[in-house]
Amino acid sequence: MARTSKRLVICLDNKGYEASLERRKIYLTLPDARAERLGQIRVIDESGEDYLYDKDAFLEVSLPLSVRRAVLQAA
């Protein structure tokens, strides 16, 4: 399966960002090569906007195509 620009991640640690992120929730990321080099990830959070967060606070997930489509449609 080809890698797409939209990746899905699960929030593992929301310490300091409790209003913006929910632990164990799936979030959509946007590509940001510069942020990745700095150990960060661009996440669309609870505000609906994209912000940079520590990459270690998330785990990238690979879902079956039908589940991935459902998650992306709900986002």
What characteristics describe this protein?
75 residues, 5-stranded antiparallel sheet
What does this protein look like?
The protein starts with 6 loop residues before the first strand and ends with a helix. Strand 3 and strand 4 form a beta hairpin. The protein has a single domain, classed as SH3 type barrels. It has two helices and five strands, in the order E-E-H-E-E-E-H. A five-stranded antiparallel beta sheet has the order 4-3-2-1-5. It has 75 residues and is of the alpha+beta class.
Helix fraction? 10-25%
Largest sheet: 5 strands, antiparallel
Rg (CA only): 12 Å
Oligomeric state = single chain
Please describe the topology of this protein:
Layout: E1 7-11, E2 26-30, H1 33-37, E3 40-44, E4 50-54, E5 58-61, H2 65-74
Antiparallel strand pairs: 1-2, 1-5, 2-3, 3-4
Q: Quick gist of this model?
A:
By secondary structure, the protein is of the alpha+beta class. The protein has 2 helices and 5 strands; from the N terminus they run E-E-H-E-E-E-H.
